[in-house]
Amino acid sequence: MTNIIGITGGIASGKSTVTAFLREQGYPVIDADAVVHELQAKGGKLYQILVAEFGEGILLKDGTLDRAKLGQAVFADSDLRARLSSLQDQIIREELLARRDVLKQAEEVVFMDIPLLYEADYSGEVDQVWLVYVDKAQQLDRLMKRNGLSSQDAENRLAAQLSLEEKRGLADVVIDNSGAVEATLAQVERLLREMKDGRRQ
Length: 201
What we know:
The protein has a 5-stranded parallel β-sheet, sandwiched between helices. The termini are close together. By secondary structure, the chain is of the alpha/beta class. Helices cover 55% and strands 12% of the residues. Helix 1 packs across helix 9 (181-196), helix 3 (45-54) runs antiparallel to helix 5 and helix 4 crosses helix 5. It is globular and about 55 Å long. It is built from 9 helices and 5 strands. It has one domain (3-196): Rossmann fold (3-Layer(aba) Sandwich). One of its GO terms (molecular function) is dephospho-CoA kinase activity.
């Protein structure tokens, strides 16, 4: 029986640090963001839908998606975000679950890195959820530094997701990423050991 573990967090909470470590340890990780990028690549299923819906104004000169322009428009307009979600969600879900089901044939543990795991209702598709957590002040600070955003733009992006506090109340496991990276990875190592020993099912 394959153990399917959903990894989630919030924007700039440090989830990619955890998933990179899991890969280094030899675990398969399905990366929802990478899958979306593939589907949004020129000619992909989502690319075709986005161009049909929003027109060629969302494209760069080479015909690829202008992600920055699309992202800015979407984060600033909740109606547009809802429309885009309904257009994309079904296609993304089908692709993610198809990849999960292929890996289940060969792997004992499969991680699914899904930033919007709760918002897009994937909790029923995984056996447990591990949340990478930082407090809001730290999250805002990291996001502004990482993406070069103003505090208002950063706030808008956080407002587009459930807060990490809300997710904390829903998750099976909370990985505290507010300290040094080494401390975060030590928590992940302990969880993996418990899983191997059968203490974490």
